[in-house]
Prior knowledge:
The protein is an alpha/beta fold. It folds into three domains: 5-226, no CATH class; 233-322, Elongation Factor Tu (Ef-tu), domain 3, CATH 2.40.30; 328-462, Rossmann fold (3-Layer(aba) Sandwich), CATH 3.40.50. 51% of the residues lie in helices and 17% in strands. It is built from 14 helices and 13 strands. The protein has helices spanning 17-41, 44-52, 59-79, 84-124, 129-139, 143-160, 162-165, 170-194, 200-232, 302-308, 344-353, 376-386, 416-423, 438-450; strands spanning 10-11, 234-243, 246-252, 266-271, 280-283, 292-297, 315-322, 328-329, 334-340, 361-367, 389-394, 430-436, 458-462. The strands form three sheets. A six-stranded antiparallel β-sheet has the order 5-4-7-2-3-6. It has a five-stranded parallel β-sheet with strand order 11-10-9-12-13, sandwiched between helices. The radius of gyration is 25 Å and the shape is globular. The relative contact order is 0.10. Residues 1-15 have low confidence and may be disordered.
Amino acid sequence: MTRSPRHSGVAGFGLSGDHLVAGSLALLGAATLGVTTWIAYRSGGALLDALRRPLSPTQTEALWTGLVAANLMLLQVVLLARLPWIERAWGRGVITRCHAVLGFASFWLMVTHVVLFAQQRAARRPADIGSALLDLFVREQHMLIATIGTVLVLVVTLSSMSGLRRRIRYEVWHLVHLWSYLAIGLVLPHELVSVDFVDGWTTTYWWTLHLVPLCLVLVWRVGRPVHVTLRHRLRVEERVEETPGVVSLVMSGRALSRLPVSSGQFFLWRFSGPGWTRAHPYSLSRAPAPDTLRVTIGGTGDGAAAARRVQVGSAVAVEGPYGSLAPLRRRHPHLLLMAAGMGITPFRAILEDSDVEPGEVTLIHRARSEAERLFADEIAVLAAQRGVRVVPLLGPRQEEWSFLPRSEVGTIDEPPDRALVRLAPDLLSSDVYLCGPPRWTWGATQAARAAGVRRRDVHREEFGW
Length: 465
């Protein structure tokens, strides 16, 4: 079969159009914060006065913190609207981290907003504080639903804190997170009433700031997935057990040659049957063909367990493709691919689909044992065909934040950066691509950076939640 250009796994040098679009959107998002600040203060002089007395907040600061908190919450929605340019340019790991930073900043600004307004209302009616606060949070126009929305934001934020998040199931966390959309809708009316919209453009701006993210979500998270699903009508054609607990699903469909997907990308998959409403991200584990797609599913979560029980003939709904691993943007003559566990799946597809010269690529794959090295035989064949150097790293992790395994005789004393140079002698003339759990990719990134690899030459795709 002749590969089409869209399946090419290696791209040229330079900044991509996706990065330019994503950067422009980031600048536009930053500009909205400036406009929102202007709405709150109305003049540069008022803003300068506030900066001169940061420890003496007035009602203007109470208003500003609330408006900026709402602004940041809307930027979070845009980040997770699955815009293809942002997904391809930054990757899911970067997007998730930015989403978390914006979320916690928005939350603390919202808390400050509530505290400042409560303090000022209490100061006006010191003899009747209880009634004053009841008026503020319940009785006044639209304030009861705004209070409910604030409580929902509090619940969502608490569920995202790492200590609690590790104790709840992904499905519960995901459902709670969807309450964010309801919270935004509940707090909007009190924002429109509270802000003194003396200018028509201010009202237009604030409505636009809310409607644009809503339209992006409807188009890219609802409309496009429905269109792709109905257009290609995927069904599970074959189910193969690769290793204990790891299953590959081969799916057939209509007009798959028109699906704009490259090796290294992933979809969000929903399989008919119990739990079909919950989507889970799985990378293609084989180069996309005109008539089939293959994904490989492992892990210990409820979603992975349900996906492994999918039967032949099941209907499939898809959302995507996403991911920053494709196309591989090359700046250097060599390429280092580093994977941990199930992170090997996109690299297995990339090796099949990339035109590389012998000796150009090194693949490092960490697994607990030889038996858990997924696709070891397939990768061996591809490596022999393309002259890829494969380096298995077998055994339990050396320590929580290291990419290295333990040796047979105990802990490896060699620093991670020196070990990486030994494993990949061409490291400093390589583009480095990583795929694996967040802590493992962090450790591998730190080792590469300590060895002298520039930040722009390290690309990460993480899985986990």
